[in-house]
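Please produce the structure of this protein holding heme C.
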Amino acid sequence: MRVKKVLLRTLVSIPLLVCAGGLQAQTAQNSAHAIPKTSEQVYKNIQVLKGVPADQFIPAMQFIAASLGVQCDFCHIENAFDKDDKETKQTARKMMRMMFTINKDNFEGHQEVTCFACHRGARKPLIIPSVNQDDVKVAEEEKTRPEETTGLPAAEQIVAKYLQAIGGAEAVAKISTRIQKGTLTVGAKSFPVEVLAQAPARRITTVGFPGGDSVTGINGAEGWLSTAGRAPHEMGPSELDAAKLDAELFFPTYLKQIFRELRVQKRELLNGKQAYVVLGIRERQLPVELYFDEESGLLLRMQRYTETPVGRNPTQIEFADYRSEGGVKTPFRWTVARPNGRFTIQIEQMQQSIPIEENRFAKPTVAPPSS
Ligand code: HEC
Ligand code: HEC
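Below is the modeled complex.
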């Protein structure tokens, strides 16, 4: 039980590459080819979210916590997530039912009203318009953010400029592998990180936490997560999708293969730079937003979403510190941000196109050694 508590704390306070892996590893042990389990098959006391794929369950909890601006313990007592001792948990069940009904009766079942739509990061939603301007700042910012939707270039032009900016499609296609070493920073703490990648979709990220390595691995159609010397947990479909996208975008020659369609949405100011927002549309997956710098052509940001039964969880990755190595520019710094936290990876050393032993991309059968 203690393990579970420590684990959960890590999960919640460090929203790492390992989103919810550990918790499910304890209960689910899904094998890659088994039929995905539903939440009630994995957890003990599910009354509302029955039939929801188990791998969407913890993301749904994270969505709820972020929407209300609270931690898990707002509704749960320690080490007993199945217990219904807290009134807030009971209220949350009522709220979920209410929300599903609102959407069904008014929005043809589309997820238009979510916990966040009302709560906006607060336990109790504001229900009376404010006389204090500060309270409406968020809405105001959204309104005044400069945004243009006309006179935009074609998606092909933006992508071509991007490939040109990073060294040209031919040079990019020549990069077969990358080994990067650097530092991952969460808040005031830093940890060593290593990224091993091979085109088109293999990537192993290892973070050396004091309690042991945390590994996120993707090898084509297979993905896994392991924390602090524990046996690896198979990624669920949405975790796998996200990890695969990150791995594929690391070798951007494949942009055209990743997205069925690229659609230019708008021109927007991003951190003082004019950027084109391009929607990347994929088969059976949620669209991804790609922000390209109008001037340099470089990719500044990617925003992707994970489906949960109560709303979509956003993940935003900002790319910076582009450096040229082997004739190809690649970001040496990226920041991954989610509603419950963020971390930054700064690369210090990189090697490219050197062979990486096949077995380094294999899913570990035993837990990785602690470092
Ligand atoms: C606003 C209230 C609320 C918050 C905050 C919340 N939960 Fe929940 N949680 C619930 C409700 C309600 C259920 C039961 C869902 C159902 O009956 O379908 C639940 C169920 C669970 C279960 C299933 C337990 C079992 O075996 O039945 C787990 C695990 C869980 N939550 C984890 C978390 C984690 C981790 C967090 C923080 C990221 C969190 N919850 C935050 C309301 C909340
Ligand atoms: C249509 C608007 C609306 C939506 C959607 C909504 N809520 Fe609420 N919620 C409210 C209001 C209003 C209150 C405050 C009621 C009061 O003051 O007693 C509230 C109160 C709560 C409380 C009690 C807070 C406390 O401090 O006691 C919880 C927990 C809660 N909501 C969870 C959720 C969750 C989880 C979702 C999404 C599944 C959600 N709500 C969606 C309007 C909404």
